[in-house]
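Budget justification aside, the reviewers requested a transparent look at the raw inputs and outputs of the sequence design task funded under Objective 1. We therefore reproduce one unedited record. The lines immediately below are the structure tokens for a 192-residue chain.
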């Protein structure tokens, strides 16, 4: 899921050894929330297509992507049409709800602002979402969705943070209520 970032400063590219590992042991499926280069890599997709037949899910403006709900192994994957955060609201974007032993909602760059008025939304155990969900009103969205845990992504390295995102998150922590917050390091595996 969005695991093939190219470098878009201040965000780092997926390390070479991870890309090589992904081509050696091919994933069962590729999921992309949108076409931005810090989430998607067309070169990897064409290499994957030459070697594997697994489904590729994503918005309609990315070639070869399906928007159909489907079962991948034991996991049921539902793409949810979603609006990208900020000024990129015109590009295709889906988020993904993954249902197995837990329900995980992977937001990609989906804006937290769009969920407030919608009803019948998924009720995730775990929300995997960009930093906007961990600052200010984003916490109300996380709590409103009923998530027990927030895994926060899309942060730059702490010592190379031109937008002050780490400070913004730390000064909003009093709003998180009972939600467990986890911010993984680059390359870290999160056990859900
Ligand atoms: Zn984006």
């Amino acid at each position: 899921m969005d695991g093939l970032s190219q470098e878009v400063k201040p965000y780092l590219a997926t390390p070479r050894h991870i890309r090589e590992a992904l081509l050696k042991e091919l994933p069962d499926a590729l999921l992309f929330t949108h076409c931005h280069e810090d989430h998607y890599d067309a070169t990897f997709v064409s290499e994957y297509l030459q070697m594997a037949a697994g489904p590729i899910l994503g918005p309609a403006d990315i070639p070869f992507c399906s928007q159909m709900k489907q079962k991948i192994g034991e996991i049921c994957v539902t793409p949810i049409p979603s609006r990208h955060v900020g000024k990129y609201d015109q590009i295709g974007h889906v988020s993904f709800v993954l249902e197995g032993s837990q329900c995980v909602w992977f937001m990609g760059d989906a804006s937290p602002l769009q969920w407030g008025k919608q009803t019948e939304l998924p009720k995730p155990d775990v929300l995997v979402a960009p930093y906007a969900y961990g600052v200010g009103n984003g916490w109300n969205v996380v709590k409103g969705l009923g998530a027990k845990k927030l895994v926060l992504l899309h942060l730059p390295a702490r010592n190379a943070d031109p937008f002050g995102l780490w400070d913004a998150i730390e000064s909003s922590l009093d709003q998180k209520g009972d939600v467990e917050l986890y911010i993984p390091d680059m390359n870290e595996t999160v056990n859900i």
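The chain has four helices and nine strands. The first helix runs from residue 16 to 24. Computational costs for records of this kind are itemized in the attached budget.
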